[in-house]
Every structure is written in structure tokens, then in C-alpha cells.
């Protein structure tokens, strides 16, 4: 199977040529797995974020390292919440739809599996109604997958069960 380049699905991402070029440039200079997430209102990008890692103490193992990263999808929503807006009491887009795109991009610009992890799924569900999120759209090896609230609920249940099963859960910090 041939890999899918971000340009192949540009029309599904509602991104301009310049935005695609910008993302490809960011991905090509990234030395880690590159994830980018953006909030789109009525299909138009309003803010974006990339994965960010915090190198804490040198003693952090790779496993623990994960805990100190903010994943792009949660960061993008935080940025969206912090943006200047006409109506400060609501995060929802008046008369618009709020979609969250989450993409994994290789250095060469090919897309990969970018389904939200258990922590992000939990966070996104918490913010879902306040932000009036319509759907989360994430990349896969073959294209895009759309997650509505129902699918996100199911995903959280599945991931939580799986984490408990293999004993890798770091516990519920809520
Ligand atoms: Zn995550």
C-alpha cells in the first residue's frame, strides 16, 4: 500500500497551499514524532498547536517522559479557549461548527495514525460540550477518521479497559 501524503488529502483538511507548505516545513525540521492539531470553525483554521515535550529532570524514563508532554490536540483547544473573542462568556462558535483536526506527519509529509490517547480523549470529552465540538478528525495510515462524541465515549471506555487490563494505567488523576 502506498503511503498517503498530506497534499493528497488537502481538500479534506480545508487547508490552503500555504498552510500545507507551512506544516510540511515544520514536520521536516521536527526531530520527534510530529503531531499538529488545529481548531477549524466552519472548516476554516482558527488556531493550531504542535506536540510539545518538556524535558524535566534527567532521571525521567521514556515511559514517564510521556507524562510531561502536552499533546497537540489538547494544546490547540487551550489556545482556542485563550483567543480574543467577541463573546467572552462562550467558547462555542456562534452559528458555526467547531472541528478539531489531529494529524501525524512524517518528515516527508506522509500521514500516520494519530488517534487521541486515553488522556487526550478524556480531556477532549470534558471540553466537548463547553466548546460545542462537532467532531474530532484524526489522520490514519490511509486517510482520515471522524470521531463524533459517541465514538469518543466508546473510545475512552475501550482505552480505559485496555489500560487496566495490561496494568499500564497511571491511575485516574481527576
Ligand atoms: Zn494524547
Please summarize what this structure is.
This protein is α+β, with helices and mostly antiparallel strands. Helix content is 35%, strand content 23%. The protein is globular, with a radius of gyration of 16 Å.
Labels describing this entry:
single chain; 174 residues; alpha+beta; Cytidine Deaminase, domain 2; 6-stranded mixed β-sheet; 6 helices; disordered C terminus; binds zinc ion
Describe the structure.
By secondary structure, this protein is α+β, with helices and mostly antiparallel strands. The protein has a single domain (6-170), classed as Cytidine Deaminase, domain 2. Helix content is 35%, strand content 23%. The protein contains six helices and eight strands. Helix 5 (118-128) runs antiparallel to helix 6 (149-166). It is globular, with a radius of gyration of 16 Å. Mean pLDDT is 84; it is low at 56-67 and 169-174. The protein binds zinc ion. Residues 71, 116-117, 119-120 line the site of zinc ion.
Helix-strand layout with pairing:
Layout: H1 10-13, H2 17-29, E1 34-41, E2 44-50, E3 52-53, H3 62-65, E4 69-70, H4 72-82, E5 98-105, E6 111-112, H5 118-128, E7 133-139, E8 144-147, H6 149-166
Parallel strand pairs: 5-7
Antiparallel strand pairs: 1-2, 1-5, 3-4, 5-6, 7-8
This protein binds zinc ion.
Amino acid at each position: 500500500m502506498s503511503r498517503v501524503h498530506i497534499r493528497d488529502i488537502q481538500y479534506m483538511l480545508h487547508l490552503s497551499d500555504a498552510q500545507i507548505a507551512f506544516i510540511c516545513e515544520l514536520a521536516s525540521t521536527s526531530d520527534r514524532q510530529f503531531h499538529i492539531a488545529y481548531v477549524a470553525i466552519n472548516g476554516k483554521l482558527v488556531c493550531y498547536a504542535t506536540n510539545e515535550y518538556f524535558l524535566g529532570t534527567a532521571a525521567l524514563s521514556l515511559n514517564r517522559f510521556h507524562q510531561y508532554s502536552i499533546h497537540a490536540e489538547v494544546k490547540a483547544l487551550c489556545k482556542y479557549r485563550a483567543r480574543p473573542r467577541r463573546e467572552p462568556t462562550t467558547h462555542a462558535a456562534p452559528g458555526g461548527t467547531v472541528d478539531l483536526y489531529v494529524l501525524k506527519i512524517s518528515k516527508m509529509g506522509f500521514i500516520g495514525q494519530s488517534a487521541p490517547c486515553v488522556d487526550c480523549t478524556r480531556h477532549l470529552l470534558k471540553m466537548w460540550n463547553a466548546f460545542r465540538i462537532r467532531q474530532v478528525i484524526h489522520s490514519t495510515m490511509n486517510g482520515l477518521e471522524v470521531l463524533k462524541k459517541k465514538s469518543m465515549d466508546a473510545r475512552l471506555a475501550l482505552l480505559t479497559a485496555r489500560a487496566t487490563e495490561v496494568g499500564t494505567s497511571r491511575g485516574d488523576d481527576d
